[in-house]
Specification:
Length: about 190
């Protein structure tokens, strides 16, 4: 393992090795400060992965990216505060500043790409792609939504099992479920419809 951290007094960065973990690369202030058993992780950025005590095959790049993650494996968080609150998750892809800001529930099989994509969603099986797509999502109820497009499903709070494709598609939906909206500005007649 290799570690490169700037010194707190502003002097030249120090380098070091992690004796109890193998194949890790850490660059940035406070990366790997808690790591004891994790292997094959790449962590770059100020306090990225700072809480990580174990886990393997993570890629965390950006200031505070994945900084609450403590273990599990195979997560990718790229962008400032991407996946910031994730804790024990596997197979997550969060790309974009502020993407996937859930409170740390156990999440798997989820892809969120775009600025603030997925909001505070703590649910599984949500492929979300687009600037602020699903950014009002909150908690574990908003599972199995497919949102693709700029601000697609942007008002969903707890709605689930819907497919919205297109810019602002389904953007009036908050709590409904099993809806499909295809095309720019396409919406159901009401939020709970």
């Amino acid at each position: 393992s290799f570690l490169l951290q700037p010194n707190s007094d502003g002097s030249a960065p120090t380098t070091g090795t992690l004796s109890t973990a193998t194949g890790n690369i850490g660059i940035g202030k406070d990366v790997f400060t808690a790591l004891t058993t994790g292997d094959y992780n790449v962590v770059i950025g100020y306090e990225a992965g700072v809480a990580m005590t174990g886990g393997q095959d993570h890629i965390l790049i950006g200031n505070n990216a994945g900084n609450a993650m403590v273990g599990n494996s195979k997560n990718i968080c790229i962008g400032k505060e991407a996946g910031q609150a994730l804790t024990e998750n596997a197979g997550i892809i969060a790309i974009g500043a502020g993407s996937m800001q859930g409170t740390g529930g156990v999440i798997y099989s989820t892809v969120m790409i775009g600025l603030d994509a997925g909001g505070a969603c703590d649910a599984n099986s949500n492929p979300i792609v687009g600037n602020k797509a699903g950014d009002a999502m909150d908690g574990t109820a908003c599972t199995s939504n497919t949102l693709i497009g700029d601000q697609a499903g942007g008002a969903i709070t707890t709605g689930h099992s819907s497919t919205f494709v297109g810019a602002n598609a389904g953007d009036v939906m908050t709590t409904g479920y099993q809806n499909a909206c295809i095309g720019k500005l396409s919406d159901p007649t009401a939020s709970g419809a």
